[in-house]
Structure formats: structure tokens, C-alpha cells
User: Fold these one by one.
Assistant:
Number 1:
Amino acid sequence: MQTDIFKELFPLFDPASVETLEWLLAEAVERDYPAGRAVLMEDAWGNAVYFILSGWLKVRFLRSQDATTLAVLSRGDFFGEMAILDESPRSTDVVAFTSVRVLSIPAQKFIQFLFKDPQLHHRMLQLMVRRLRKTNQRIQLRQQVPAVRIASIVTSLAETYGSKTDAGIDIFNIPLQDIADLSEVSPEDTTKVLDKLKEKGWIAIDLKRQVMSILNEKQMLQLAIFR
């Protein structure tokens, strides 16, 4: 992959020189995973960082036979860095919603890369803080009514990963149970809220293409008042 395209897709690498980035990408391997495949398994020791080139995935926590979705990721995001930075087994696994293509960079090379430039350390810290802030926002969302929680999750995914169209913004049609997990709303109440949003014409779901379209972004943002 060309360095300029990689930088555009992954802002973490903005401060990196072309030479340093070429050195890193020479060690990278593109990998494809089908829908439903686990990309990373819980308790596996971190040996790589994965950068998402296409597709949608979910990060989940497993406890006995139960799985809870913690986050949804898509093109332009990355995962696997936590197990590398604290040198401990992973506490979650990552599963593909759709067919996925990722760029895998060996752990040792990624760490060496970070040490090459203090600015890269700073960028990594910024991104980690941003993720922590999102986690804190989700915790505070528990005080909100179900409609606000779900609208906040949907609009956040649209802002981060959505594709703009003439009609609105398209995202992958996240399964109902996963939206319920993310918003910490019961599946029954999640169904009611999504049905109401469809009735209002604020969202539309195309089951054939597995796409959720945010048709009225303004109203959805106003509903998601807790930002």
C-alpha cells in the first residue's frame, strides 16, 4: 500500500516520515476474513496490531457462554494495540460482521516504529484518550432514556464510519442484539426504539444490502442530546 493512502486512512501515522512508514509497511501483511470469523481470540497474547482496510467488526467480551459486544469498528480504525502495549493476554475477542480485510503489523515492529519518533507516541496517547473518553460517555449514557442511548450509538457510528449518500449516511446494519449491548438497553426496548425511528422516517434499514441509512441526521443528533 502507498504511504500517502495509508496516512490518509490512518491519521495515527501523520507525523511519520515516508522512509519510516515504508519500513513499517514492508513488514505488514494483508489478511482477509469472512463474515462470522474470529480475527482475534480472547486470552491470546498480542503478537500484532491490525489496521482495518474494509469491512465491519465487533469487539466482544466473553463470560462463560455469554458474549457482550463492547464496540463496533470499521475502515480506518485499528485494534490489538492494548495487548502489545501492556504485554498481557487479550481480554476480548474481535469477530467479523462482514467480510473484512486488515493489514497486520508484527508487535515488535510496531513498538520499534513508535520509538522512532516522539510525535508518534503523542498521537497514540491522543487516540487512547479519545477511546477512554468514549467509554466514559457510554457509562454516563446509562442515565439517559433508551431512545437517547440508541440514537447516540447510531449517530456516533455514522459520524465515525458512515458513508455519505444523497439520502443521508449509510452504516452497516448492526444486529439488534449488538445495538442492545452497546446501548445497554434490553432487546425488546431496542426493537421498539428502532421501529419508532423507522416510522418517523429518521432511519431506514435495507435487509438485502445489510445497510442502515440515517435519513434525518439533524433529528437524530438532536435526539442524541448526550454528546
Number 2:
Amino acid sequence: MPVSTCVFDAYGTLFDVAAAARAASAEPGFEVLADIWPRLAADWRDKQLQYTWLRAVTGEHVDFWSVTQDGLDWAMEAGGLDDRELRERLLALYWELPAYAEVPAMLAAIKEQGRSTAILSNGSPDMLQAAVDSAGIAGMLDVVLSVEEVGVFKPSPQVYGLVEQHLGSTPAHTLFVSANGWDAACGQAFGFPTVWINRLGVPIDRLPERPAHVMADLTGVPDLAERL
């Protein structure tokens, strides 16, 4: 069936989640990060995601900003970092995450094809709006959808159901794109044709469903949408 809508995860898919730690490491006063920022960024992201899953399972929902702070606190302690000023700077930078280089042209190409575009993210609405505005891509998106509307994180089917509710696009007509392998797999199980953006070349997750397509970056998404 032809694709009428392209829906994107936000963090790690459109926006570079490692950018906050990388940028801070280059700022005066935070030289301690010079050699360890990649590990800090990876630990921060891993814990952030783990806390969303645990809260979804236990039913103890908080917004994404809370799990983002909790994940950073764990990562800083694991790295032996006890610096409140550094913590506040890293959190501030998270509100200004840049988009990956190919994102503006990719979104523009999809819009030129006449397709709808959307974000579907664990992020809270204010965080997502800040990221979209900072990256300058607001005009290329029809809607930005947050899990806060249903009060549970991905991969709950309630989250994926927001696409049809807001855009009227059935799963079969919606291309879902995520840099999280588990997200792409669960979206596939929901009924979306999905793309996993595997920037790091890691193995595929062992889950009941697998993404229909795998790409190294977002460049090929418009061409794929044309072919489906």
C-alpha cells in the first residue's frame, strides 16, 4: 500500500543525543569530560531508556524530563563526577540538541512528495518543541506527538495508536522510522512498515518482529517512501 505519512522517533533518530556531552566537553571549565564524554553520553542514554521501560512496566509514569535527569545522575555517579554546575550545563544543552545533518533535506524531500510528517516520541511536549525549534525544522512537520497524551512510554501500543488518531493514517499507510532497534521492531509488530536507522552498525535486536528496512542514516527515507 502507498505510504501517506512518515513518522519519526525524535531522540537519537532526528536529534543527536550525544551532542550535549560532546558540546560540554569543549567548554571551559568542563575539561574533565575531554576523554570520557562518549562513555557518559552512552551511559546517560542507556539509563534514560531503561527507566522508561521500567516505568512502563510498573505503571509508575513520570515525564521524559524526569527520566532524563535520573539517567544523567546515574551516568555521572558511574563516571565519578560530582559537579552540580556540570550537571546543570548538560541538562541545559539537552534542550538544544542539534538535528543530524541530513534531517532538513530529508524532511523537505518528503514534504515535496506530498506526504505528511510527524514526530512520535517519548519526549515531553515542551522538550520536543524546544528541540524542534532549536533545529529549525518546525515548518517541515505536520504534528509532534508525545507519549504524555496516553501516560505511558513506548513500546506501548497506545503510543503507536496516536498516529492514526491525529493524522488519520492507518498503520499500513504509515512509514515509521526509529534509530532504536526495539522501537522499530515493536512498530513493525503494531502494523507499521518500519525503518531502523542503525548508525552504529550494531546487531539487530532478538525480538518477535524485525524492522522491514535497515539504513545507516536517514538519507534514503524519501526514496523508500516512494517505493512502498
Number 3:
Amino acid sequence: MSKSKSLARVGLVYLIAFGAATVWLVWGPDTEWLWLDGLIADLIATVVVFGGSRVLHNSSCYDPYWSVLPPFLVIFWLLAAETPGVNDARAVLLIVVVFVWAIRLTGNWLHDWPGLRHEDFRYAPIRDGAGRFEMAADFAGIHLFPTLIVFLGLVPAYAVLARPGDDINWLDIVAVVVGIGAPILQFVSDAQMRAFIRTRQPGQAMESGLWAWSRHPNYFGEISFWFSLAFFGIAGSPEGWWWLLAGAVGMTVMFQGASIPMMEKRSLERRPHYQDVIDRVPRLVPRPPKRRTVA
């Protein structure tokens, strides 16, 4: 199937998914808590996308959900909140950061995704390992779990947009710098990887540019974005730092405990010299690599 036809099918799934979520938010029962309204709408859209994944026989139908859901929810919270004391300047800064990140990540998916003939290599083992419960594993592991992690990461955005907040302060500046810097770092690292893929030799591992300072600079940028949202939340409600950091910490645990190990296992299987990269190049946080040992 061509990429254009694949995009049309996935686009229709998302139109239905976010249409259903919007119907809930506009005409559904009022829970009296905006965060809960948002979570229910999020889950409704996830279920629809899961249905689309099953119909299209490709769980990568869910992949763009990660970056298109956050703008949807932050705009809902912005428009629906009627709480006095919301800091409008902080709200605007946060929304700018979210949209810069979302546009970059969605654009990256549009550029690199070849269509429904491709599925993320991590998904089949999750389904196959569950045996007769593969549908449950598909829903819970590939669709629901990421949805809940992203929602947890958006809790600071809810705090900024729907709760009273302190005046703008130095931590907001840090949040903006980190939040804008993160997608820039991801953009550069992705561009470097594309250039490498065009010219690499069989079995060659990437270890130049940003990838010489971190084995996963794109993941570092992703985690940094979620920490920027936490910083916005803490800037407005410093007393809630412990729950405002939960989403960013959860993201870090997920990438460190699942995504990175799966990527590195695959690289070791396909690139015999990747162990040398592991031995020298930092795993996540960029810093100068160790010198290569001369035999």
C-alpha cells in the first residue's frame, strides 16, 4: 500500500477518534473535574485508534497519537477552564512549547513513516509473547500504557492552564529554554541520523555528531520536553513539585527501562561493533565520550 493511501486511512481513524473525544467533551456528562473530562476523552480516542489498528492490522497506527493528543488536551483545558488566578503568560508559554514539540514530532513521523507496510519492530514481540491474549497485550501494552504515561506527563499542563499559579519566575525561563531546546536537539539528531543512513556501510553504527555524545540523543530530547512541562507546573505551584514531576519521571523510567534496552538489543544483533559504542558513548545524557582503546 502506498504512503498516501496509508496516510488517508490513518487520518480517517484519527478523525473519528478525536471526533468522538470532542463529542464527549462538548455533549457528554459533566464530571465537574476538567482533568477527568480530559482523561475520559483521551481514553475514548485511544479505544478508537486501537480499533483502527486492528482493522488495519498494524499497531503503528497508534504512533502519531503520542504527539497529536497533547495539543488537543491543552487547548481543551485552556478553553474550558474558568478558574480565577490562572497565570495567562505562563499558559501562553506552555502552549507554545507544546505546539513546537508536537509539530516537530508529528512532522518527523510524517517524513519517516513509509506507510502501513511498516510496523514498529517492538510491537510484534509484545503481541506474540502474549499468546492467545495478544489482543489484550496489543491494547494494554501498545495503546493504553503510552496513553496513560502521556496523560501523566500532561498533568503539569493541566495545573498551569486550569489552576491558580504564582507569578512568572526564573523557573519559567528554564522551562522555556528546555522546552524549545528539546525539539531542536531532536530535529538535529534526527537529521544527522538520516544523513548517516543514506551513506552507512552494512553493520556500521552511528557515532558522530550528537550521537557521539549520547547513544540516544533523540530520547534525551523527548525526556527533556516532559521535564520542561514539569518545570512550568512547579513554577506556578512549587508546593506540588512531588506530583508535578511524576509524569517526567515516569517517562524517564519508560525510556530507560523499556525503549532504550529494546533498541540496543536490536542494534547489538544487527551491528557487531555496537558494543564498542556502548562501552564509550554515554547512554542518554550527552557528555564527551571515552577515548577508543588502542589495541
